[in-house]
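We include the entry.

. . .
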Amino acid sequence: MKIIPFEDLERTDLIVDAVYEGGGAGYSLGDPISRLLPGCGNLGGFRHSGRGDRKKFVVLFTSGEDKDWPDSLDLNTGKFIYYGDNKTPGHELHETHKGGNRLLRNVFEWTHSNPPKRELVPPFFVFQKYQTSNSARSVQFKGLAVPGFSGATATDDLVAVWKTSNGQRFQNYRAVFTILDVPVIPRVWLDELVTSSIDYQITPKVWMDWKANGNYNPLISEPTTVIRSIESQSPQNAQQERIVTAIYEYFKDEPKRFEAFAAKVFQLHDQRVIIDEITRGAVDGGRDAIGRYLLGLDDDPIYMEFALEAKCYRPPASDRNANSIGVREVARLISRLRHRQFGVLVTTSVVARQAYEEVRGDKHPVVFICGRDIAEILIGKGFNTPEMVARMLRNEFPN
């Protein structure tokens, strides 16, 4: 991991996944982003340089810790989902202090107008909080972004979503960006953006291609392994840990009831999932639920059948080890799969490495949804506290 010290920030390039350290001279003075990109401000998720609607550049900063508005970056595709800045009730969608939602509306309108006005769209620089031993304000650069994503339409990539807080409803934007395949942003281009004196000889070619032709060239990174570690299957923070623990505690004495919940989790993950039956214990044939996965066109669909198995096992936590899924449990599911079926295993725990390796090594068509996955799926659907999850469990899966 490349770490750039605070005193060098004014001279450095922006390198994807490099960490830029914060300073120790107070909260605002120690902000690394404003030192990297002068004129953008030192607070907030939206930071920009330039007056009016025309901006020289925009910074999108995410802590990665907002349980209500979970920004996310898919490293495999370069798709970046970012939520706007209307995060409390009492304001109209575009009436925000930093003007972030108005900015989103403008750049997506310019991107999709006919003819497009992409020349008006400023570059977006994405940073994420990355605490280091020297500073809690350090950040990691995630890339140069543009509005939209290949294959997404004007109705898909900027959507106003409703949330409820303290009994009050309000809207915020969910915006989809593409991280472009630009591994290094040269300092000389950053300096010219600040001064508005652009030399197109040094402007990143992928950025110019998008501006001129609308071509999305995402920064794609294929995973080096298909075997998820125990750590990557486990809750990553206290919020996720509490949610998974609440689920386990609710179902552990009657694990058979966990099966319907596991089926719901798979449906929440993908709207193309159809659950046909939660099977009865005496006649389930090793399958806790069966269903179909929708493929093809709406008026000419085809379906792939799947069998789902649910395991309400003790999840990992800071004060205990997990009761992990082993080879025996996975083999049981695989042996019950019929021709042209795939399997889904949902657990509050984790899949042991040997079992994971055997499934992937032998190319068995099995989907694993583990404790961390369950938490992330629920949080993404608005069930972002243990209390909200417990309420949903009592309402939908009563004792």
